[in-house]
Specification:
With about 450 residues, this protein is of the alpha+beta class. The chain contains 9 helices and 6 strands. The protein has a 4-stranded antiparallel β-sheet with strand order 1-4-5-6. It has a two-stranded antiparallel sheet with strand order 2-3. The relative contact order is 0.12.
């Protein structure tokens, strides 16, 4: 009976093992590079999508404004019936006697209108509207580039925060392993009578501190992943990893950065477009003081019969042309006030342009000095980590040999953790500074 039970259990275990072995493993998502993160964020970020939509809409409005300068063509068709006044009169079309309409303004009881009408308006207002639409389109395009660069800067910061949190998690795990190992050493030395129980207590306190730091590191990594996931995926809880880089990129030359920033700065382009829009609004205000010329050409029929020829072969089809000039005389100085209003806004736009130029120069110096300082400190941070690792190794040897104290070991462990975390923060600082420079110059 026992042998049969063992055989059945063995068979069940073998089947379970085969089932587990045949279960396909979950696909592993490849590590996300910075370029891929930027691409995903551009597809999902609502503010960038709104800026892109506004840019496309402004481009269409510019096309519409330019099209408004061209002649418009309308094929007009109308049938008008008017009640008769019960009288008869001979018309000019071959002396045909017809009933007259009851309304004086109407031409006949039955009137058919079928005409192609070409209209062109020549005036300052149309030109100003086209200039304004072009300036608004240029400004929307510049604002889109500003939104794109701002989004990239945000993604870079969150991307390297996520990678830094992973590095700090590894540091916390290693520090906890080191603390566990040291606690084991102190307990063995206490059992051998080579150290006091106070050493064990101090080592245990250090271990507990490392456990808390590990919990905080896990939480920080989850937060960093969620913050980046909000920009990348429909579900921010999507699991992903951040790709590692072989080495930190090199800081570009200062002259190259200055040249690129001066030639490709969307903030200045936006300010210039705003100034042009204000100037176009000033021209629009002047249009209210100037006359407009309206030209019209119509070809077709406007007759009592829907036909090219009326009774006795009289021609109904023909053309008419008109030219109208409207000269503004008096509007209670409204147009003059609009001109002054537009000039005031144009002056403010000029101040905004000079302010954008000053801000660009200040950002250039600030971002470059930030990147330069962060790059210099990376070398010092690497040296600090190496020194802290060596100090911990020597301190552990001195404690095992009975020449050091437990406080020396715990202090060396804390110094190494602080050095490694500082190096991770320094790497984030350097990459963010480089990203700010790259967005300022349009290289990213």
């Amino acid at each position: 009976m026992r042998k049969g039970l063992v055989s059945i259990l063995g068979l069940v275990g073998l089947l379970c093992w085969r089932g587990m072995a045949q279960t396909p493993a979950a696909p592993v998502r490849p590590a996300i590079t910075l370029e891929e993160a930027i691409r995903l964020a551009q597809n999902n970020e609502p503010a960038f999508a709104a800026a892109a939509a506004e840019s496309h809409a402004a481009a269409l409005e510019r096309t519409d404004a330019k099209a408004a300068l061209l002649p418009s063509v309308v094929f007009h068709n109308q049938y008008l019936y008017t009640e008769s006044n019960r009288s008869k009169a001979a018309t000019t079309q071959g002396g045909v006697t017809e009933s007259l309409p009851v309304f004086i303004a109407n031409n006949a009881v039955h009137e058919y209108v079928s005409q192609a009408s070409v209209t062109e308006t020549v005036g300052v207002a149309g030109v100003a509207a086209a200039r304004l639409a072009s300036a608004n389109a240029a400004r929307a395009q510049a604002e889109l580039e500003i939104a794109r660069r701002g989004l990239i800067a945000t993604v870079v910061g969150l991307f390297y925060d996520a990678r830094s949190s992973s590095d700090k998690l590894a540091v916390a795990q290693r520090a906890l392993d080191e603390a566990n190992h040291f606690l084991d050493i102190t307990q063995k030395r206490e059992a051998a009578g080579e150290s006091a129980h106070a050493d064990v207590i101090k080592a245990r306190l250090g271990q507990q501190q490392r456990q808390r730091e590990l919990g905080d590191a896990v939480l920080a990594k989850e937060k960093a992943s969620l913050e980046l996931g909000v920009l990348l995926y429909p579900d921010p809880r999507t699991e992903f990893t951040v790709a590692e880089e072989a080495a930190a990129p090199v800081l570009p030359d200062r002259k190259d950065v200055e040249a690129a920033a001066g030639a490709n700065n969307p903030g200045i382009r936006s300010a210039i477009a705003s100034l042009k829009a204000s100037q176009a609004q000033t021209l629009t205000a002047w249009g209210g003081l100037l006359p407009d010329l309206v030209l019209n050409y119509s070809y077709g029929i406007d007759a009592p019969q829907f036909a090219s020829y009326g009774p006795d072969g009289i021609q109904n089809r023909g053309f008419s042309a008109s030219a109208t000039v409207d000269i503004p005389i008096w509007d209670w100085l409204t147009s003059e006030r609009k001109v002054r209003e537009a000039r005031i806004r144009a002056d403010a736009s000029q101040v905004a342009l000079t302010g954008a130029q000053r801000r660009m120069l200040a950002n250039l110096d600030e971002f470059y000095h930030e990147a330069e300082t962060a790059q210099q400190q990376l070398v010092s941070l690497d040296a600090s980590v190496a020194d802290a690792q060596e100090a911990l190794r020597l301190t552990n040897l001195r404690y095992v040999d009975g020449e050091g104290t437990v406080l020396d070991v715990v202090d060396a462990q804390s110094t190494l953790v602080s050095s490694e975390n500082a190096r991770a923060d320094g790497m984030v600082r350097y990459h963010v500074a480089l990203a700010q420079l790259a967005t300022l110059t349009g290289r990213l």
